[in-house]
Amino acid sequence: MKIGIIGTGVIGATLAQRLAGAGHEVAIANSRGPETIEGKALSTGARAVEASAVAAGVDALIVSVPLSRLSDIASLVRDAPAGAVVLDTSNYYPKRDGEIAELESGQVESLWVVEQLGRPVVKAWNAIGAQSFADRATDPGTPDRIAVPVAGDDAAAKSIAMTLVGDTGFDAVDAGTLEDSWRQQPGTPAYCTDRTAEVLPSFLAAADKKRAPLRRDIVFNAVAERTDAEGSVSSDYFVSLSRAVY
Predict the structure, then answer these.
(1) By the 8 A CB rule, do 113 and 90 touch?
(2) pTM of the model as a whole
(3) To 10 degrees, what angle do helices 235-244 and 212-230 make?
(4) What's the pLDDT tens digit per position in 196-233?
(5) Which CATH superfamily is domain 2-205 in?
(6) What does the DSSP 8-state code read for residue 84?
Protein backbone atom coordinates (compact mmCIF):
# COMPACT_ATOMS: atom_id res chain seq x y z
CA MET A 1 0.00 0.00 0.00
CA LYS A 2 1.19 3.52 -0.75
CA ILE A 3 1.02 5.63 2.42
CA GLY A 4 1.71 9.28 3.13
CA ILE A 5 2.37 10.62 6.63
CA ILE A 6 2.13 14.28 7.61
CA GLY A 7 3.98 14.93 10.85
CA THR A 8 7.32 13.76 12.21
CA GLY A 9 6.80 13.68 15.96
CA VAL A 10 7.27 10.41 17.82
CA ILE A 11 3.99 8.97 16.56
CA GLY A 12 4.55 10.02 12.94
CA ALA A 13 8.17 8.87 12.90
CA THR A 14 7.28 5.52 14.48
CA LEU A 15 4.47 5.04 11.98
CA ALA A 16 6.89 5.61 9.12
CA GLN A 17 9.40 3.17 10.54
CA ARG A 18 6.85 0.43 11.28
CA LEU A 19 4.75 0.69 8.14
CA ALA A 20 7.76 0.78 5.81
CA GLY A 21 9.17 -2.17 7.73
CA ALA A 22 5.91 -4.03 7.10
CA GLY A 23 6.42 -3.63 3.35
CA HIS A 24 4.38 -0.52 2.58
CA GLU A 25 5.64 2.28 0.35
CA VAL A 26 5.82 5.19 2.79
CA ALA A 27 6.50 8.90 2.29
CA ILE A 28 6.72 11.25 5.27
CA ALA A 29 6.77 15.05 5.39
CA ASN A 30 6.81 17.97 7.79
CA SER A 31 6.61 21.74 7.46
CA ARG A 32 10.38 22.25 7.67
CA GLY A 33 11.52 20.20 4.70
CA PRO A 34 12.73 16.64 4.08
CA GLU A 35 16.29 17.41 5.12
CA THR A 36 15.08 17.92 8.72
CA ILE A 37 13.49 14.48 9.09
CA GLU A 38 15.53 12.29 11.42
CA GLY A 39 17.04 9.02 10.31
CA LYS A 40 15.01 6.78 12.63
CA ALA A 41 11.84 7.56 10.68
CA LEU A 42 13.59 6.52 7.48
CA SER A 43 15.51 3.55 8.84
CA THR A 44 13.28 0.87 7.30
CA GLY A 45 12.78 2.44 3.89
CA ALA A 46 10.38 5.37 4.25
CA ARG A 47 11.18 8.39 2.07
CA ALA A 48 11.36 11.99 3.26
CA VAL A 49 9.50 14.25 0.82
CA GLU A 50 8.30 17.80 0.48
CA ALA A 51 4.91 18.39 2.09
CA SER A 52 3.44 19.27 -1.29
CA ALA A 53 4.23 15.75 -2.54
CA VAL A 54 3.26 13.63 0.46
CA ALA A 55 -0.32 12.90 -0.63
CA ALA A 56 0.38 12.23 -4.31
CA GLY A 57 -1.14 8.94 -5.41
CA VAL A 58 -1.53 7.55 -1.89
CA ASP A 59 -3.92 4.82 -0.81
CA ALA A 60 -3.84 6.11 2.76
CA LEU A 61 -2.83 9.44 4.28
CA ILE A 62 -2.03 9.68 7.99
CA VAL A 63 -2.32 13.06 9.70
CA SER A 64 -0.19 13.19 12.86
CA VAL A 65 -0.05 16.86 13.86
CA PRO A 66 -1.47 18.86 16.79
CA LEU A 67 -5.01 20.16 16.36
CA SER A 68 -3.64 23.68 16.23
CA ARG A 69 -1.82 22.79 13.00
CA LEU A 70 -4.73 21.26 11.11
CA SER A 71 -5.53 24.43 9.19
CA ASP A 72 -1.93 24.50 7.93
CA ILE A 73 -2.17 21.07 6.32
CA ALA A 74 -5.84 20.92 5.34
CA SER A 75 -5.11 21.73 1.69
CA LEU A 76 -2.63 18.84 1.52
CA VAL A 77 -5.28 16.45 2.81
CA ARG A 78 -7.86 17.70 0.33
CA ASP A 79 -5.37 17.07 -2.48
CA ALA A 80 -5.14 13.36 -1.65
CA PRO A 81 -6.85 11.01 -4.15
CA ALA A 82 -10.60 10.78 -3.69
CA GLY A 83 -10.38 7.12 -2.72
CA ALA A 84 -7.58 7.54 -0.19
CA VAL A 85 -8.30 6.68 3.43
CA VAL A 86 -7.43 9.59 5.75
CA LEU A 87 -6.36 8.57 9.25
CA ASP A 88 -6.15 11.04 12.12
CA THR A 89 -4.03 10.55 15.26
CA SER A 90 -4.73 13.89 16.96
CA ASN A 91 -6.02 14.73 20.46
CA TYR A 92 -7.35 17.92 22.02
CA TYR A 93 -5.39 19.45 24.88
CA PRO A 94 -6.61 23.03 25.38
CA LYS A 95 -3.53 24.02 27.40
CA ARG A 96 -1.40 22.98 24.43
CA ASP A 97 -3.66 23.71 21.46
CA GLY A 98 -5.58 26.70 22.78
CA GLU A 99 -9.27 26.49 23.60
CA ILE A 100 -11.48 25.56 20.65
CA ALA A 101 -15.01 26.81 21.22
CA GLU A 102 -16.77 23.97 19.44
CA LEU A 103 -14.90 21.33 21.43
CA GLU A 104 -15.42 23.20 24.69
CA SER A 105 -19.13 23.10 23.87
CA GLY A 106 -19.06 19.32 23.49
CA GLN A 107 -18.55 18.65 19.80
CA VAL A 108 -16.80 15.32 19.25
CA GLU A 109 -13.18 16.02 18.36
CA SER A 110 -13.08 13.71 15.35
CA LEU A 111 -16.17 15.32 13.83
CA TRP A 112 -14.56 18.74 14.25
CA VAL A 113 -11.43 17.39 12.54
CA VAL A 114 -13.53 16.25 9.59
CA GLU A 115 -14.89 19.79 9.25
CA GLN A 116 -11.38 21.28 9.32
CA LEU A 117 -9.87 18.86 6.82
CA GLY A 118 -12.84 18.61 4.49
CA ARG A 119 -12.43 14.83 4.29
CA PRO A 120 -13.83 11.86 6.20
CA VAL A 121 -11.32 10.41 8.63
CA VAL A 122 -10.69 7.27 10.63
CA LYS A 123 -9.42 7.85 14.17
CA ALA A 124 -6.47 5.60 15.02
CA TRP A 125 -3.24 5.57 17.05
CA ASN A 126 -4.44 8.50 19.15
CA ALA A 127 -5.12 6.46 22.29
CA ILE A 128 -1.63 5.09 22.87
CA GLY A 129 1.18 7.12 24.39
CA ALA A 130 4.09 8.03 22.14
CA GLN A 131 6.60 6.02 24.17
CA SER A 132 4.39 2.95 24.46
CA PHE A 133 3.88 3.15 20.71
CA ALA A 134 7.61 3.41 20.10
CA ASP A 135 8.70 0.74 22.58
CA ARG A 136 5.91 -1.79 23.15
CA ALA A 137 5.02 -3.22 19.76
CA THR A 138 4.74 -7.03 19.72
CA ASP A 139 3.91 -9.82 17.30
CA PRO A 140 0.33 -11.09 16.88
CA GLY A 141 -0.56 -13.61 19.55
CA THR A 142 1.90 -12.27 22.10
CA PRO A 143 0.38 -12.49 25.62
CA ASP A 144 -0.87 -9.12 26.91
CA ARG A 145 -0.40 -7.47 23.51
CA ILE A 146 -1.55 -3.84 23.67
CA ALA A 147 -4.65 -2.92 21.68
CA VAL A 148 -5.43 0.32 19.84
CA PRO A 149 -9.04 1.48 19.28
CA VAL A 150 -10.10 2.49 15.77
CA ALA A 151 -13.23 4.55 15.06
CA GLY A 152 -14.77 5.50 11.71
CA ASP A 153 -17.97 5.70 9.70
CA ASP A 154 -16.88 3.84 6.57
CA ALA A 155 -16.51 0.09 7.12
CA ALA A 156 -13.98 -0.41 4.33
CA ALA A 157 -11.83 2.51 5.46
CA LYS A 158 -11.95 1.31 9.05
CA SER A 159 -10.93 -2.19 7.97
CA ILE A 160 -7.86 -0.76 6.22
CA ALA A 161 -7.00 1.27 9.31
CA MET A 162 -7.29 -1.79 11.53
CA THR A 163 -4.98 -3.75 9.24
CA LEU A 164 -2.42 -0.93 9.41
CA VAL A 165 -2.66 -0.85 13.20
CA GLY A 166 -1.79 -4.53 13.18
CA ASP A 167 1.16 -3.81 10.90
CA THR A 168 2.52 -1.39 13.51
CA GLY A 169 2.62 -4.03 16.23
CA PHE A 170 -0.68 -3.71 18.09
CA ASP A 171 -4.08 -5.38 18.09
CA ALA A 172 -6.85 -3.26 16.58
CA VAL A 173 -10.26 -2.96 18.26
CA ASP A 174 -13.30 -1.62 16.42
CA ALA A 175 -14.41 1.32 18.57
CA GLY A 176 -17.51 2.22 16.56
CA THR A 177 -18.35 5.37 14.64
CA LEU A 178 -16.73 8.79 14.72
CA GLU A 179 -19.64 9.92 16.88
CA ASP A 180 -18.40 7.36 19.40
CA SER A 181 -14.72 8.29 19.08
CA TRP A 182 -14.82 10.55 22.16
CA ARG A 183 -14.55 7.26 24.09
CA GLN A 184 -10.90 6.95 23.02
CA GLN A 185 -9.90 10.59 23.54
CA PRO A 186 -7.99 12.09 26.51
CA GLY A 187 -9.64 11.68 29.90
CA THR A 188 -11.29 8.33 29.16
CA PRO A 189 -10.44 4.87 30.56
CA ALA A 190 -9.27 3.64 27.15
CA TYR A 191 -6.86 6.51 26.56
CA CYS A 192 -3.17 5.68 27.02
CA THR A 193 -3.85 2.88 29.51
CA ASP A 194 -2.29 0.08 27.41
CA ARG A 195 -5.19 -2.38 27.59
CA THR A 196 -5.47 -5.67 25.72
CA ALA A 197 -8.03 -6.40 23.01
CA GLU A 198 -9.97 -8.63 25.42
CA VAL A 199 -10.68 -5.86 27.92
CA LEU A 200 -10.45 -2.67 25.86
CA PRO A 201 -14.14 -2.73 24.79
CA SER A 202 -15.22 -2.62 28.44
CA PHE A 203 -13.02 0.42 29.05
CA LEU A 204 -14.44 2.15 25.97
CA ALA A 205 -17.94 1.46 27.30
CA ALA A 206 -17.04 2.87 30.72
CA ALA A 207 -16.14 6.33 29.38
CA ASP A 208 -17.89 9.31 30.98
CA LYS A 209 -18.13 12.23 28.56
CA LYS A 210 -18.87 14.84 31.23
CA ARG A 211 -15.95 13.84 33.45
CA ALA A 212 -13.40 13.27 30.68
CA PRO A 213 -12.17 16.91 30.38
CA LEU A 214 -11.38 17.12 34.11
CA ARG A 215 -9.49 13.83 34.04
CA ARG A 216 -7.66 14.92 30.87
CA ASP A 217 -6.46 18.09 32.55
CA ILE A 218 -5.40 16.30 35.74
CA VAL A 219 -3.12 14.01 33.74
CA PHE A 220 -1.83 16.85 31.56
CA ASN A 221 -0.93 18.98 34.58
CA ALA A 222 0.75 16.11 36.41
CA VAL A 223 2.84 15.20 33.36
CA ALA A 224 3.77 18.85 32.77
CA GLU A 225 4.86 19.29 36.40
CA ARG A 226 6.97 16.15 36.35
CA THR A 227 8.46 17.03 32.97
CA ASP A 228 9.50 20.45 34.28
CA ALA A 229 11.16 18.80 37.27
CA GLU A 230 12.81 15.80 35.61
CA GLY A 231 12.92 16.60 31.90
CA SER A 232 10.72 13.70 30.81
CA VAL A 233 8.29 11.05 32.02
CA SER A 234 8.50 7.32 31.38
CA SER A 235 5.82 5.35 29.62
CA ASP A 236 5.30 3.36 32.84
CA TYR A 237 4.58 6.57 34.75
CA PHE A 238 2.22 7.90 32.07
CA VAL A 239 0.27 4.64 31.81
CA SER A 240 0.04 4.29 35.59
CA LEU A 241 -1.14 7.88 35.95
CA SER A 242 -3.69 7.49 33.15
CA ARG A 243 -5.07 4.38 34.83
CA ALA A 244 -5.09 5.92 38.30
CA VAL A 245 -7.38 8.84 37.48
CA TYR A 246 -10.25 6.44 36.83
Answers:
(1) yes
(2) 0.95
(3) 150
(4) 999 999 999 999 999 999 999 999 999 999 886 667 78
(5) NAD(P)-binding Rossmann-like Domain (3.40.50.720)
(6) P
